[in-house]
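User: Some background: our group keeps a shared notebook of sequences we're curious about, and every so often someone picks one and asks for a predicted structure to add to the entry. Today it's my turn. The entry only has the sequence so far, pasted here. Could you supply the structure so I can complete it?
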Amino acid sequence: MAKFFEKVKRFLERKDIVFSVKRYGIDALGAMAQGLFASLLIGTIISTIGTQFGIDVLKTVGDYAKAAAGPAMAVSIAMALKCPPLVLFSMVAVGISANELGGAGGPLAVLFIAIIASEFGKLVSKETKVDIIVTPFVTIFIGVMLSITCAPYIGKAASSVGSVIMWATEQQPFIMGIIVSVVVGVALTLPISSAAICAALSLTGLAGGAALAGCCANMVGFAVMSFKENRYGGLISQGIGTSMLQMGNIVKNPKIWIPPIVCSAITGPLATCLFKLEMNGPAISSGMGTCGFVGQIGVYTGWMDSISSGSMSSITPFDWAGLILISFVLPAVITPLLAIPLRKWGWIKENDLKLDM
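Assistant: Of course. Here's the predicted structure to add to the notebook entry:
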C-alpha cells in the first residue's frame, strides 16, 4: 500500500498537481479576478460609455467583452494552475457552461469547476498517443458535466445572499443600511456576482442606494488603502474595476478586509438615513459600485426618470453631495483611517495588499 501511495505521489508531482490553499485559494482565485476584469468589468465600462454618449460601436464592443466573462475566467484559472496548452484551450467551453448555468454564482461556479476540470485534464495530458483527442475530451466533458449538475446549485447558494438583502430591506432604514451595504459590498469582492444578485432581486430605491454604498466602500476603500503598494495602476484597477482583485490577499490575511467592511457599515446608513440616496436606475447598477461609474450613472438616470415622472422636481446640491460623498470621498477617507491602527498592531503588514500586476 505504501508503494502505491508513493507512486501516486510521484505521478501527481510529475503532473504538477498540488493540493494546497495557496494553489487554489490564492493563485487560481487571483487569476480569476483578472480574467473577470479583462472581460465583464472592462466590457461594462466600455458599454456604459457607449450607451451614455450614444456611440453604438462602443456598446457593441462592450457587449462582446461581457459575453466572454466565463471563458476569460476559466482560462485565467487554468493558466494559474500551469495547465498544458490543450487543457488551457479546452477551458473556453468549460467557462461558458459554468458561468451561464451558475447564474448569480457564475464566477464562483467557474472557480470551482475550472479547478477540477483543469486538474483532470492535466492527469491525462500526454499520457496517450491520441492526446489531441483525449485531453480536450476529458477536460470539456468533466467541466460541462459538473456545470450541468453543480453550477445551478452554486447559483442558488449565491442567490441566497439575496434573501438576506430582501429581509434587510423590510427593516427600518438604519439597520437596512448597515446590513445591505455590508452584504452587497462583501458579495462584490467575493467571486460571486453582486450585480446579478441586485438585478435578480430588483434591488432599487433606498436598498439600492445602500448596496451602492457597500460596493463603493470596498472598491474605493481598497484602492486608496493599498495605494502605497499598488500606486496608480492599483487605484484605477480597483477603484473603477473591481475589489475582487484583492481576494487572493484576503485569503492570505482576512484582516485586510476589516477597514472596507467597517466603512460600508458606516456609509450604508448614511446613504439611507441622511442623504436618502436612492437607486432608481437599472437594478443591476446597485451592485456595480464605481465600476466604470455604472452605479453613479444609474443614480443619475434614476433622478432624470423621477423628474420626468414628476416625483422629483429637480436635482439639488444636497443630492449631488450625497452621491459624491457616499461613492468616493467617505470611502477614500474612512477606510485608510481605519487601517492605521491595524497596521500599528501588525494586523496588516507591508505588501499584504500588493497586487500581482
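Suggested note for the entry: The CA atoms of residues 277 and 323 lie 7 Å apart. The first helix runs from residue 2 to 14.
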